[in-house]
Amino acid sequence: MGMQGMINDIGHASGPLLAGLLIAHLSYQGAFAAIAVIQLVAAGIFWIVVKR
Amino acid sequence: MNQAHSFFLLCGIGVFCFLSYNLVRMPVLALFAQSLGAGPESIGLVVSVSTLTGVLLKLPSGALSDIYGRRLLLRVGVLAFGLPPFVYPFVSDLETLIGLRFVHGLATAIFAPAALATVAEMYQTQRGAALGWYTASTQAGALLGPVLGGWLAYAAGFPVTFVTGGIFGCLGLLFFFSLRLNPPPPRGEKRLALVLADMWKGVHIVSGNTRVLVTSVTDAAKMIANGALMAFLPIYGISAGLNPGEVGLLFGIQGVTSFLSKPVMGRASDRFGRRPLILLGLLICAGSFVLSRSLRTQDTGSWHGNARDD
Q1: Superfamily of the domain at B3-292
Q2: Is the pTM of this model over 0.90?
């Protein structure tokens, strides 16, 4: 659980950093689209890899 | 002092400390950093640095507890909740703000695991219920923080907001120092090499199980979205015509939705399985970001934290 929590925290810490970079170089709209794509890619990988 | 009284005080500490922490963090911190001249990259760094403290300290917290004793960790944690908010009004540059956020991040990184371990130890037989009540207390504080913080920043400005956060943190301190706990003394036998060995063992277990690894990374992907919202919803909200009080309310609504839906979703996942629920959560998250893009915004410049003049 500790390691899982750490991976969770790494995601939480990298969110603002990644969003900051994306907003600076794209726009809010571009950054939000990129974050939406990350969610969809994660959903796809999870669905394929973690079978019942 | 009986056990019920000690537990009540511990829940009170949870409410006040997490109220204080989140009052400073959302939506105030990003707006404060912007008022100091931070661009998007720096705002991202300021908001993420306290979580980085957690990354460094949460995993070895069990081992630190063995070396230094849980009482000391709780004491350091509760002090890290109560004192830093009073320093924010004197911060005038981003480097100091980043340093202060690192110190403030010690609060949750050190206190949270030690407090959970204390509650678990207090209630050997009704552990689940006790942990549930304690977690609900911290969540209640965490919910109220952004609503109160946003409103205070709007109505009274940054300094009053930070001092109020400090007062709530000190209430937590007061509760803590009236608490009589008998946590286990430091065992002292763990050294750095053993701490690192424990961490390495955790890495090995997670990386060796594809299902656990992918599920953890999926959770991290969701947390990327959460972190991005925490940092940039305030600024995006202001550019869409909201005031900080209204942005704080948005965080409050998000927290209430999460708080109320957890038991329902827990039951739904028991019935339909975990996979569909995780997939649905990620799709809702992606959909929220896509819909947020369609808001009309304008460059309103930074919000300088002056109290409203209407």
Answers
A1: MFS general substrate transporter like domains (1.20.1250.20)
A2: yes
